[in-house]
From TrEMBL:
An example Gene Ontology molecular-function term: RNA binding
UniProt protein name: Uncharacterized protein
Ranges of compositional bias, category Polar residues: 55-68, 75-85
An annotated GO BP: maturation of SSU-rRNA
Biased composition annotated in UniProt, kind: Low complexity: 17-33
Region feature (Disordered): 1-97
Length: 1030
């Protein structure tokens, strides 16, 4: 039986196999044809494979075939076990078979060696051939490049020579030959002086501070620095005045070379300047690097302004020309009918850092067709100026203030739209403007308007020719349509935000998905701010701190907020927000300037303006006193404003990487959801808290019927609980208690939405007497007026005690107008075209409502002001006087009851008079009617005298009042004789209720006796009069 044996593979390492063979094979290993080093490395990395072959072998042969050059590998168990034979059989094999096997292995190894040597030799020859080819290609390309570079070098030498010749030719120009050497010497001298002064300053500040340092050293250095600054300004002005030579090419001009020596930018931009208008003083242009005025126009204390000024800078032959524009509110030089419509313009050149007095007197004036609230002058529209009116009007004027074109917002009620803010951007920087409907270049105007109970954003584009194109408008959805907006912001990327007085901060994104129409989407969830002074709840009236907030959009969704902290000492707060992720990026707090007057009753106004330049990012923060009610100036002799420059660093775009880890950074300024829930149910019992949460949920879902169901479900539960408990300490048996905070929360839900108003809940609270006017945002009567709930208004006059006189008389004016319309319709019954306005339908009758106004407790001064404001027309007062005259006529027919009908003893045994009720039905008390009539005549008597139809009523009233006055005179005569009896009766009532007065033991009895004796000697009784005749 033949035994299988393992032979080396053809890919086995030759050197390894030779080392493991017989002596004959070892001799062949000394052959000089051995493989190269590369071949050796390759063979070492190969792996041996084993093939089975039928031939006599032994286990020793199998072990040798598994060895490598790096060491011996273990033999596989399958090969060694399956091919092994008994030891006694292996020793009996003939030696000839072993020799034949060794010869066969040597032949196989020699064949493998020859194949490797052939492959190695071929590869080395190919490598050498490739190297020679590459060398020849590189030498050829090097020769070509050398030839080309030689031509370029010749061209460069020729170009430099020509440019140098042109430069020398320009220096030889007579206009420059006498100027340039002087300027260069002056510049070198300034540079040398600057180096020396800098060294001296550093040496001085490096010395230790002690009393031996002479102050004169510092003063001398300051004087030398001031002299150097003056010299530098003179040098700057001289360089800018150097004329450019027209005989040479622009690239060889000397003027750019000289201007490059200066450290400022003279490209005509106004990056380092800011125009400021000071009420009652003038217009100043400030240099932001030093905060010193560069240009000042002092206009006197009688001049006020209606909007901030604007300054445009341009370069004319190297000389900076400033153009300043401002809208004037009042001035001795402006006619009353031209106020707020007059624009003044100055144009002057800056020579040596100062403006000549002659240039300051050159003032241009123009009157526009509408008042001006904002002026914008951009370098991208050098020939036009944009002016915005209070109703959103946009007027385009030329450099001489001649009107070129205008645009008026469409779709708004006439006179109802009010400008909130207007923001301008470069058209090339705006990404939200529809490209198919707007010009590709120009200025984009984003206007925010309040139109009745809605907020609109209007986008318009002004092209380089001055034509205004409409790019679309959108309604801004707010939680409360009538929320008072404090400020708005908008960036060039279309991220806009709206901040309300309740601290609600909305964020939206303007975009045009199809490049045709403009749309608005909500960017992120609502933020509710806290700990800032401008925030106050809707139940409070207007606060003097409303203007202590300002927003400035920077880029992308980054917004800078400036306000005053409400916790602790008031401090100025700067907050940098990323509205896309609702996180606070950075914050800074510092003390208010000491020059600013701020009290609890008088706040300040904050204005934040971000720089539009491409240079260092900075913003202007203007802090000024609060304006008075007329808005024509500032109150107080020592009122002053402060302008701060706020540098900031903000990422170019809003990324989630910058927002990571900053979720808790704004916790001190934002109300969280948990805090909002706690505030909602704070200071109310659990049952009321559950009702508040249910009403809030229904109100947020705009389910007004859900608010009513939740409230009356709570009422039924409380009434059932009180019926079971049988509480005896309540004011009203079986009525649930109503706290102030709970009622305020309920009223907030009742008046949250204009549509779907819930009057049933309000009337329940009014009947319970739990409502006050200040619980409702803006007042109870204005809210009822907006919802035309006249029945609740009548009920409120009976149960609410703090209704302002202005709100009450405002509704009275509507009632009077409705009464006049009904009277005119009754007189002309054939007039079928007369239609009662929808907003006055259902108003109460004039006598009914006037009776409530007459009996309501009011202040005469506030009532006079309200009558002058809302019933200024004498024709509207005539119906009111007619009703009052009718009431006085009825009171004149009533009998006067002086004596009581009967007397009886009270609970303390004292006789008291009893009067029967003589009050006529539907007739107010006479004293209330007379008090209201007196206030009405005090407020409008002159207007009634100028109105002839009122003369008859005035005479009638006089005729009715004269008998009453005569009766009062007669009754007044009874006052003196009846006074002792009235005093005795009052003393008897008091003693009956409280007992007789105790004797004052602190007075000595001797003193009392002395006082009684002196009184007796005087002999003066109560009605005894001494007569002295001279």
């Amino acid at each position: 039986m033949s035994q299988p044996r393992i032979v080396p593979s053809r890919y086995l390492n030759a050197s390894t196999s030779l080392s493991n063979k017989s002596p004959a094979a070892n001799k062949s290993s000394a052959n000089p044809l051995k493989p190269s080093s590369a071949t050796r490395v390759a063979t070492v990395e190969s792996r041996p494979t084993q093939k089975r072959r039928t031939a006599p072998s032994s286990s020793r042969t199998a072990v040798k075939s598994s060895e490598t050059a790096k060491g011996k590998l273990p033999v596989t168990n399958s090969a060694s076990i399956s091919n092994s034979v008994p030891r006694d059989e292996a020793t009996t094999l003939p030696s000839k078979q072993e020799k034949a096997s060794s010869i066969l292995d040597a032949l196989q190894l020699a064949a493998q060696m020859q194949s490797w040597l052939y492959m190695t030799t071929t590869l080395e020859q190919q490598l050498e051939t490739s190297k020679q080819s590459a060398q020849r290609a590189l030498e050829t390309r090097s020769s070509e490049l050398s030839a080309e570079e030689m031509d370029i070098a010749n061209e460069r030498i020729r170009f430099d020579a020509e440019r140098l010749l042109d430069f020398y030719e320009e220096l030889a120009d007579p206009a420059l030959s006498s100027t340039v050497p002087t300027l260069v010497r002056a510049f070198l001298q300034c540079e040398d002086t600057y180096s020396r002064i800098t060294s001296e300053v550093l040496q001085l500040v490096s010395q230790p501070l002690h009393g031996r340092l002479d102050v004169r050293l510092f003063n001398e250095l300051l004087e030398r620095i001031a002299t150097l600054q003056h010299e530098y300004r003179d040098l700057e002005s001289s360089i800018l005045k150097v004329p450019s030579s027209s005989t040479v090419r622009d690239q060889a001009s000397v003027v750019p070379l000289l201007q490059s020596l200066l450290t400022h930018n003279f490209s005509g931009k106004t990056d380092g300047l800011a125009a400021v208008a000071v009420q009652g003083d003038g217009v100043h242009v400030l240099d932001l690097s030093t905060l010193h005025p560069t240009i000042s126009h002092t206009l006197g204390p009688s001049t006020t302004f209606s909007c901030p000024p604007v300054t445009r800078t341009r370069s004319d032959n190297g000389v900076k020309v400033f153009t300043t524009l401002v809208a004037v509110h009042s001035s001795p030089d402006v006619l009353p009918e031209d106020r707020e419509r007059t624009v003044w313009m100055w144009e002057e050149t800056l020579s040596g850092g100062a403006v000549s007095a002659k240039a300051q007197k050159k003032k241009k004036s123009a009157v526009l067709p509408h008042p001006v609230r904002h002026i914008y002058a951009s370098d991208d529209l050098p020939d036009h100026v944009l002016l915005v009116g209070p109703r959103g009007e946009l007027t385009v004027a030329d450099t001489q203030l001649a009107v070129h074109g205008s645009s008026t917002p469409s779709g708004s009620s006439e006179g109802a739209a009010v400008l909130l803010k207007d923001i301008f951007f470069l058209r090339t920087a705006c990404t939200f403007v529809p490209s198919r409907t707007a010009a590709s270049r120009g200025i984009v105007s984003v206007t925010f308007l309040r139109d009745q109970d809605s907020i609109r954003v209007l986008v318009r584009v002004v092209d380089p020719e001055g034509t205004v194109h409409s790019a679309g408008d959108c309604l801004i959805p707010l939680r409360e349509p009538d929320e008072e907006v404090c400020d708005v912001s908008c960036s060039a990327s279309g991220c806009l935000s709206v901040l309300t007085r309740m601290g609600a901060w909305y964020s939206f994104q303007l975009e045009s998905p199809n490049n045709i129409a403009l749309s608005l989407r909500i960017l992120t969830n609502l933020l509710t701010l806290k700990s800032l002074t401008f925030i106050y709840p809707p139940s409070t009236p207007a606060s003097p701190t409303t203007l202590e907030i300002s927003l400035a959009a920077l880029n992308s969704s980054h917004v800078l907020l400036a306000g005053i902290s409400a916790t602790g000492a008031p401090e100025l707060v700067l907050l940098l927000w990323d509205l896309q992720y609702s996180v606070l990026i950075a914050s800074h707090t510092f003390a208010l300037p000491s020059t600013l007057v701020r009290t609890k009753r008088r706040g300040i106004s904050i204005d934040l303006v971000a720089s539009e330049s491409q240079g260092p990012a900075q913003a202007l923060l203007v802090l000024s006193p609060e304006r008075n009610a007329l808005g024509q100036g500032f109150s107080g002799r020592s009122a002053c404003s402060t302008v701060l420059v706020v540098p900031f660093s903000v990422p170019v775009t809003s990324t989630i990487a910058n927002a990571l880890g900053r979720a808790s950074a704004g916790a001190a300024w934002v109300i969280s959801k948990r805090e909002r829930g706690k505030l909602l149910t704070k200071s109310v019992d659990p049952a009321q808290g559950g009702a508040v949460v249910a009403m809030n949920t229904a109100s947020n879902q705009q389910r007004t019927e859900g608010v009513e169901e939740a409230f009356f479900a709570w009422v039924r539960e409380e009434e059932a609980r009180l019926a079971q408990v049988q509480a005896q300490t309540r004011e009203e048996e079986g009525k649930p208690p109503l706290g102030h905070l709970f009622v305020t929360r309920v009223l907030e839900f009742v008046f949250r939405h204009l549509e779907g108003y819930v009057p049933r809940v309000l009337r329940y609270l009014l009947e319970r007497g739990a409502v006050s006017s200040v619980m409702v945002a803006g007042g109870l009567f204005p809210a009822l007026n907006a919802r035309q709930d006249w029945q609740s208004a009548m009920l409120a006059l009976r149960t609410v005690t703090d209704i302002p006189e202005d709100d009450m008389i405002a509704l009275l004016s509507k009632v009077v107008q409705s009464h006049e319309q009904s009277v005119s319709a009754g007189e002309d019954a054939m007039q079928i075209d007369s239609v009662v306005p929808a907003n006055t339908a259902g108003l109460p009758a004039l006598p009914t409502y006037l009776a409530l106004c007459v009996t309501y407790s009011t202040s005469p001064a506030a009532l006079r002001v309200a009558l002058r404001r809302h019933l200024s027309d004498a024709a509207d007062l005539v119906p009111v006087l007619a009703v009052l005259d009718g009431w006085l006529a009825r009171w004149g027919k009533e009998e006067v009851h002086l004596l009581p009908d009967c007397i009886k003893k009270d609970a303390h045994g004292v006789l008291v008079p009893l009067y029967s009720a003589h009050e006529p039905a539907n007739l107010p008390p006479q004293d209330k009617v007379l008090a209201f009539l007196q206030t009405l005549l005090d407020a409008s008597f002159l207007a009634l005298l100028a109105h002839p139809p009122a003369h008859r009523l005035l005479r009638t009233l006089l005729a009715r009042l004269q008998p009453e006055l005569a009766l009062l005179d007669e009754i007044e005569q009874l006052r003196v004789p009846l006074q002792p009896f009235a005093a005795a009766h009052a003393r008897a009532l008091y003693e009956g209720a409280h007992g007789p007065p105790k004797t004052d033991t602190r007075v000595d009895w001797r003193r009392r006796k002395k006082m009684a004796h002196e009184q007796a000697e005087l002999a003066l009784g109560l009605y005894q009069v001494e007569e002295l005749v001279i």
